[in-house]
Amino acid sequence: MTKLYIPVILGTAHEGRASEKAAKYLFDQLSKNDAVETELVDVRDFAFGHTIPSWEKSSDAEKWREKAQRADGFIIVTPEYNHGYPGELKILLDTAYDQYVKKPVLLCGVSAGGFGGVRVVQSLLPIVHELGLVATQETLNFPKINDAFDESGKPTDPKMDERVTEAFDELLWFTNALKVARTNT
């Protein structure tokens, strides 16, 4: 049986980014699933410097488009900056279009404050819908990110593993269902 390919996107290139802790944790958790192949995709690896439309040729854009085309679903981990998302995440997402259509995405917000990136998830919903992605109902939020993980990378919230399992179950359900539907049409 072919494994589902679901990359975890770390959506900021900010120096000292605390959201990397959440992205690595989710990547590690997803890696434990034998039905899934994953990788941690870092926006730092795509030095666009400017927006490259989905129809324009570019080696960095092609590298991302190939990953997006291959993907069966996505997990986006992004910090909340002033109620919004980092520009480099938007630039990465805008370099592809057809490659996203009818693929699920789990949105994960990160913040230093108590809301856990709720507002960044809300601001990303119209973007992912316009790109043709199917946002899962479940989202993951990592409030007070500087205290959310211990030195070994384990969450300090004892319920986090349970919430991640629920979110992954929904993502995998949508990933399987939409992959079958895309294959049959």
Describe the protein's architecture and organization:
The protein starts with a strand and ends with a helix. It has helices spanning 19-31, 59-70, 87-94, 118-130, 160-183, and strands at residues 4-5, 8-10, 36-37, 40-42, 74-79, 104-110, 134-135, 140-142. With 185 residues, it is of the alpha/beta class. Strands 2, 4, 5, 6, 7 and 8 form a six-stranded parallel β-sheet that branches. A two-stranded parallel sheet has the order 1-3. It has five helices and eight strands; from the N terminus they run ββαββαβαβαββα.
What's the average pLDDT?
A: 94
* Sheet with most strands: 6 strands, parallel
- Helices and strands: which structural class? alpha/beta
| Separate helix tally | 5
How much is the radius of gyration in Å? 16 Å
Our measurement of the CA-to-CA distance between the termini, rounded to an integer number of angstroms, reads: 21 Å
Provide the succession of SSEs: EEHEEHEHEHEEH
Q: How big a fraction of the residues is strand? A: 15-25%
Low-confidence stretches: none
- Please give the number of β-strands: 8
Overall, the morphology is globular
Fraction of helical residues: 25-40%
Oligomer: single chain
SSE topology:
Blueprint: E1 4-5, E2 8-10, H1 19-31, E3 36-37, E4 40-42, H2 59-70, E5 74-79, H3 87-94, E6 104-110, H4 118-130, E7 134-135, E8 140-142, H5 160-183
Parallel strand pairs: 1-3, 2-4, 2-5, 5-6, 6-7, 6-8
Structure characteristics:
two-stranded parallel sheet, six-stranded parallel beta sheet, 185 residues
